[in-house]
Amino acid sequence: MIKFDYNKKNAWCVWCKRTENPHPDFNEPIPTKVFLSKKRRKIELCLSCYEIEKNLSNEANQDFYKFLDDRFEKLLMLDKHEKILMNV
Ligand SMILES: [Zn+2]
User: Where are the domains of the chain?
Assistant: First the structure.
């Protein structure tokens, strides 16, 4: 079981861009975890995005960490998030 960081300062999910827990009962930062991708990018994901990614990579029969890179590269092309790259 992967441990997520609760109450992390400046928590920010790279995929869904959330910074706060979407659950209305919780007024706190979104639980996230920083994953180190195959190409050694630091990719911060929230709990729900992680579960989606994990299932997708399982279905595609791909390594989760490589899957993150593929996704991230697509995201870069779509959003041109050079800022994310610079932080790595
Ligand atoms: Zn997310």
Answer: 1-88
